[in-house]
Amino acid sequence: MTEKSLRLPKYTIGVGDRFALQGRAQLRACVLALQAGQEISPVWNKSNREHLIVGSEPSQTRQAADQAVRDLGWTGPYFLDADHIGLKTVDRFIEPCDFFTIDVADKIGSAADTGDVQKFADRHPEVLAEIPLTAAGLTSKAKREDVEEVARKYLAAVREAGQIYRYIAERKGNGRFIPEISMDETDSPQQPLELLIILAAIADEKIPIQTIAPKFTGRFNKGVDYRGDIEAFTREFLADLAVIAHAVRAYDLPANLKLSIHSGSDKFSLYGPIQRALTETGAGLHLKTAGTTWLAELAGLALAGGHGLELAKEIYTQSYERMDELCAPYASVIEIDRGKLPRPKAVKAWTSEQYARALHHDSSSEWYNADFRQLLHVSFKIAAKMGVRFIDAIRRNEEIIAGAVTENLFERHIRPLFFPD
User: In this structure, are residues 157 and 107 in contact, taking their beta carbons and an 8 Å threshold?
Assistant: First the structure.
């Protein structure tokens, strides 16, 4: 990178905003963090799929982010993420975006050329050495056949990432955007040795990545807490931090390269272990919170009562009736027990508090319903089809909804992750 290249700060938070109405509320959470002594830079993210569902353009997301920054007088860095793009979808994002999540998960496992695999292994004898992963108290040591096996699995994906990176750079200019590589939307987690080999291949492609999103152990379902072995995740996370620190030195990758957690939001049980790991190692982090803002909007509508509550109930009724359609695109990242979903007739009789408490992610509450929350997480298409009726309801209840959005991001995500106890 040159001196004029964009540089991702140490701590960043990806904030999804389905309808581009909560930019100020989201940025207020970062303002609160700054006032408390920690700079957390916002990265507004919205995928091509979400734009298609809502009927929006990346330029509108840029306008909303810029307006929020002007309104609040934010002088720190901020970014706009072309979330989960590939060659077929990147063009509409090139002008407005300055952060590109290059998603090549669907290329993992595509057989690499045998000759390319052999050449890669020949180029990288250093991965056969004993490498101490001090942060995790582990050591990485590979055999030649291990390297070839991993290269065979990931080289095609990394080559695809290189092609996408160069496509963007030719149109955007080197150093004028933040490259991230995402490999999280796949079935098998990447072990530390795999991550090391992936980073070596990325360096071969000369991609100056500043963040990488691997697949971690356990389930990262949309809008609900982590499901898996927390101790195993913690060991893996620490090992990945050590691998990144080693790869930065070994392969001359950007010094600020950091892990990205595409969490589906609300992985509260992991925030303590992650925070302790960051404190112990001094590493940075990019957390992508995705759809938690949309759910805060919906909870705010319910709490507003009256027409807002009725609209929230209508969204659930339609979601329940169109469940298969809404869940299909997210099948790998949701797990809904249909038998635990409340019937729409029952929900129609709920008070504002009952609806909000069922939706609010508080596992200690007898009202909290994780299946209800997951279904609504993927149901923003219903609100989008309502058009002006939904948008007007959000604007009429802006104060209560904005408060819910800010509180959710700062108190439930930023504070436990970036502020030591």
Answer: yes
Confidence at residue 4, expressed as pLDDT on a 0 to 100 scale: 63
Three-class SS state of 81: strand
Count of CA atoms in the C-beta half-sphere (13 A) of 59: 3
Q: Which two tokens stand for residue 224?
A: 């609900």
Q: How far apart are alpha carbons 30 and 28 in whole angstroms?
A: 5
237 neighbors 272 (Cβ within 8 angstroms): no
Is residue 186 pLDDT above 90, yes or no? no
Q: In 258-320, at which residue ranges do the beta strands (DSSP E only) sit?
A: 258-262, 285-288
Q: Strand (E) positions, 224-367?
A: 258-262, 285-288
- pLDDT tens-digit readout, 248-260: 999 999 999 999 9
Give the amino acid at 384.
A
pLDDT at 3 over 60: no
- Give start-end residues of each CATH 3.20.20 domain in the chain: 12-292
| Residue range 371-403, pLDDT digits in tens | 999 999 999 999 999 999 999 999 999 999 999
CA–CA separation, 420 and 327 (whole Å) = 37
User: Please, is 191 exposed, middle or buried when counting C-beta atoms within 10 Å of its C-beta (0-12, 13-18, 19+)?
Assistant: middle
Distance between CA atoms of residues 313 and 348, nearest Å: 6
* Predicted confidence (pLDDT) at residue 194 exceeds the cutoff of 60: yes
Domain 12-292, CATH among 3.30.70, 3.20.20, 3.30.40, 2.60.40: 3.20.20
To the nearest whole number, what is the mean pLDDT of the chain?
95
Distances (CA, A) of 85 to 56, 106, 170, 173, 377: 16, 12, 16, 18, 21
Question: What pLDDT shows up at residue 2?
Answer: 41
